[in-house]
Amino acid sequence: RPQMRAQTHPFLFTLMTLMAAAELGLTAFLISTGNEIQAWASGAYRSLLILLCFESAWTILFTAAYMIWVIDGGAQILANVASSIIWLLMTAILWGAATGFMHNARSGGNCVGAPPTSTCRQTLTVEALGWTEFSLCSVTLITTVLWMATTNSKAAHRDSR
To answer: Rounded to whole angstroms, what are the CA distances from 2 to 81, 148, 157?
Structure first.
């Protein structure tokens, strides 16, 4: 099982970093465009874009730092399993909440007939990337907790002999 974590954990964190980078680029673009033309669907929509932009930067910073420390082999606090569980839980909650609010705040439905580069499709992509990031955080969290549970139960069986 330690090999499973050693292989899947960095892979999942890399996916989280890449998804957050895509989300950061798109939300920054939409914020910039909205500021230029001063046209926002609503104040809540603008605030949620800013929140998702922040969450993207937050995720990139911590997942990249975690990956560097794991690759470096250090035992810094961000590479500690307990701290990664706390961070993953907090990040998953933030992504889930913000994306859920974005689902309710965005204008338009499923963008039928809209051009490929329309604001409707871009906003739908922001939401889709947010749900993907939430899912990746949740899967990584579950994987980490299961790894800890199997590692601790094996250690307990060894100690009881």
So the answer is: 12, 9, 16
* Cα 42 from Cα 104, distance rounded (Å): 11
**pLDDT on residue 76:** 53
C-beta of residue 99 within 8 angstroms of C-beta of residue 3? no
pLDDT-above-70 percentage for the chain:
80
Residue type, 147: W
Half-sphere exposure of 36 (CA within 13 A, CB side): 6
Model pTM above 0.70: yes
Per-residue burial over 94-126, b if 16 or more Cβ lie within 10 Å, else e, is: bbbebbebbeebbeeeebeeeeeeebbebbbeb
Residue showing tokens 């965005």: 106
Residues in the chain: 161
Q: 108 in the Ramachandran plot: left (φ > 0), alpha (ψ -120 to 50) or beta?
A: left
Gap between the Cα atoms of 81 and 83, Å rounded: 6
Residue type, 154: K
Average pLDDT over residues 44-55: 93
